[in-house]
Amino acid sequence: MSNTLAFQLEDVSKQFGELTAVSAVDLQIPQGQRVALVGPSGAGKSTLLGLLNGTHLPDRGRVCVLGHDLATLNTQQLRNTQQKIGTIYQQFHLVDNLAVVHNVNAGQLGRWSFWQAAWSLIRPLNTDAAYEALIRVGIPEKLYERTGQLSGGQQQRVAIARVLVQNPDVILADEPIASLDPERAREIMNLLSELAQEMGKTLIVSVHAIEFAYSHFERIIGLRNGRVLFDAPATAVSPDMVRDLYQLTP
Ligand SMILES: Nc1ncnc2c1ncn2[C@@H]1O[C@H](COP(=O)(O)OP(=O)(O)OP(=O)(O)O)[C@@H](O)[C@H]1O
Ligand SMILES: [Mg+2]
Fold first, then answer.
1. Model pLDDT, residue 4
2. Å from CA of 47 to ligand 1 middle
3. Which residues neighbour 5 within 8 Å (Cβ) at sequence distance 6 or greater?
């Protein structure tokens, strides 16, 4: 683990109209740490992840990613920084009609020219990298299969392979197991945390199943109404803290 911070947030807020989705959040996440984001529906987990990867810009405060204040970057610098963040979503965000190899290679798009990207749809470039990534996620035999034909768990593996090909410093995942059965969910969580540890990547994952937050992460951040209710090592998060987090009264 290096001393560089993957993320530094200072007094960050994000509004959607009148609604404050993320409110006055201060956060420091060192490189290489594995962090779970938990909290009830609407707490602001997805919005916070969007602030971390530059999908959202804060209305107030500062978001620094790998030492760069996102608000001060020009378009090219922002793109370069975003290339160092890989994001995985609940619904995989893959193109169903394309072969797996193309979806995995989409992890390269930030580095490829337009013509390289266009040509790769006719004749896949860098098939080796895609194949290697698929070996790491356990489905190398699916390289040329149509993505839409794969099961949910397999598609999430393709999404992870795409992030491996991107080779970012940070992996964000927004409810990556929400559409999977319990056994597939465990497999994907194991895979994500093993890959992150093996490669020294920062991993930040929003999860609804609190048991996974305990079992796979060093640190748990509890969000509620856009605010950080607790932020502690997983070993220090008590059942009472979790109960308070999910209580319905504000
Ligand atoms: N694009 C948007 N436009 C307007 N409101 C939004 C938008 N995105 C999120 N919100 C609102 O911001 C609040 C936080 O939403 P967010 O999606 O971050 O919560 P969440 O913790 O990810 O919830 P869930 O567990 O259901 O995914 C919610 O009240 C939501 O309705
Ligand atoms: Mg969400």
1. 82
2. 6
3. 28, 29, 30, 31, 64, 66, 67
